[in-house]
Amino acid sequence: MFLTSSIEVPASRERRTSPRHATNGMVYRVHEAGTSELGKVRDVSLGGCFVLSDLSVQLSEQMHLKFSIGAEFEIEGTIARTGTGGFAIVFSGQAAEA
What we know:
Layout: E1 5-6, E2 21-22, E3 26-31, E4 34-44, E5 48-52, E6 62-68, E7 72-83, E8 86-97
Antiparallel strand pairs: 1-2, 2-4, 3-4, 3-6, 4-5, 5-8, 6-7, 7-8
């Protein structure tokens, strides 16, 4: 399995409702022509993830995602934050096995 550990965040900065887990899996964007690699998943929780990537994405952009992090699943997500080295995705909807 690719999940490696929980990540501790100071309570004053934490806005998540579920714990994050470090991982070294990959995430792909699913589109009509197939899939394209978005980047490496740094951490994941029930509510979202952080992706290490140099790709340019737009804040609030919605996309269909496919994860390979020990288990494979697909889910809808929205870009919630962008920054140097990557971006945060908030999940929307229910995950489905890929």
